[in-house]
Design brief:
Radius of gyration: 29 Å
Distance between the termini: 35 Å
Number of strands: 14
CATH topology of the largest domain: Rossmann fold
Shape: globular
Number of domains: 3
Length: 576
Amino acid sequence: MRALADALAARGVSLPVEQVALQLDWSGGEHGDLALPLHRPAKSLGRPPADLATELAAAFPPVAGLLPATAVGAFLNFTAEPRRLAETTLRSIFERGPAYGHLDGPAPPVCVEHTSANPTGPFHVGRVRNGIIGDTLARVLAATGAPVTSQYYVDDVGRQAAMITWIWSKPLPEWPQEIRAVLPAEDDPRERADRRLGRPYPAVSQYLKTHPEAAGEVQAISRALESGRPPASHHALVDKVLNGMLASLARIGIRFDELVWESRFLTTGEVERVVARLGAAPHAVTEPNGARAIDTSSYGLPKDSARVIVARGDGTTLYATRDVAYHLEKFSRFPRVIDVLGQDHHLHARTLDALLAEIGESRRPEFVIYQDITVPEGGRMSTRHGKAVYLDDLLDEAETRARAEILARHEDLPPEEVAAIARTIAASAVRYHILRVAPDKTVAFRWEDALSFEGRSGPFLQYSYARASSILRKAEAEAGPWPFDPDRLTTPPERALIKRLSLLPGVVARVARTTHVHALAGFAHQLAEEFNRFYETTPVLKAEAERASRLAVVAATRRALGNTLDLLGLAPLERM
RNA sequence: GGGCGUGUGGCUUAGUCCGGAUAGAGCACCGGGUUCCUAACCCGGCGGCCGGGGGUUCGAAUCCCCCCACGCCCGCCA
């Protein structure tokens, strides 16, 4: 299929119209696989487009793997020769196996930083959108042949982390009453650390607004953290909360190659060097109170935020300054650097760009910006405003429902297997539900949608995979691999399915280029849909002459769908 | 006020970067389908002046301009 564009371009030159190749477009419709609109060239020739189409169709030389070009109205249509498409597609899937859909590479090493939520407590669904996008992007980039490193930037020196240490370093009797009130009457030892240790956080945040003396204590801890003398319990505490949070993410398949602790850049002196470089920068200014700043008005930032403070009068630094140090380190290791950020960080991204420019750094991270997840009452999901749905709660509910669905279908499965399948279904439902929406679109969270196992959902993909597995399981007595005869794969559902299978590598390439991971989610649904149509209309095990060839189609679909699930971070299921 | 983003059937959305044929899908609703490989499925139907207006073009959901609505950001927080 790829060769088609080249073949046409080569011939296009010999045709009277030069810009032919530029008009090529995937139509994917009933008219053909590739369509060439001829309105423009016809106009420049002063001829009716339909005439030109007819003439070109007749004159177009045969191309290997293509049916003869046809003229429909003003369009010149090309269709892949189904026999050959089946042949090359199935063969490629069987040869490449788990790598089908992957590109040959190599591609330059890339760093994907995502999630990086402050270690202050459990994840709500809004925060998890970052990880779902980032983790999926990392998987797709790896499939292009790039060595990928995913990073979680742990802010262990900021005010948020200081708040956690502040409250937990006090003996319980000394806790302010309004904070203590949020603790449950009895400690549940089974509770994970992020939930237990993060529980007081919203109350602390509230309390500090009205209690300056407490805010002062937190400030003191903050300074201690920045100066590299953290309270004894600090690191272990943050580590515990963080590990609880990571366990939560692991439930939906999100994982990290590296945890990057922000404190590291302070202790190595890298932040200090950044401050020095910024002090010597072209637009460096010093505020009356001794704070160091950069005037970024020449970078087109909104004028109200044109002055970016990089160090306070007391010498302590701010998030943006430390982020510069972090990015310099990333640039030293990776030719390509991607940051996944919520839209509330958009201004920060532009500020970071400006600061990098100020110190003469020419490289920039690529930002993948996504919009909020909102709640039905309005506004975005937020722990502090008490408008949050926690990932664990959502997954727990999804598991409960999945279990009921499984039990309604299978009475004989051992409980452990039911539980394992339910976990997998729950994870895919939640992950897919977030993944399917374009990142620049706000997601309005609704329980009934997030818990859907039907239609455009993760479980639908898994169900399709399970159906394919089931057929192959039943056929196994006769053992694969299945030889196929392209001449026996001629029904419309078969052809449509095979065409879809052939598209996966192109989708991977496009997603890697655009970072639009939701497009892969869309492809997965189309593939599963195509397979289900095939499944409903085309007998496989009971077929006679076509049996082996159809089994090959099922095996190829199972493979390609499995690879796609893997790229999406969803687990395949042999039965469900 | 300034900046960024979004607006597509009742609801959720794809397509917008790179303009082309009848704007794809899911949910809901209506009507069908299981002696046959898992009905978490399939088939059919209903439902769209693509926020509004202007412009460019043979052709606009897509490009340009203006307006409206909604969300977020505009800290010596992160």
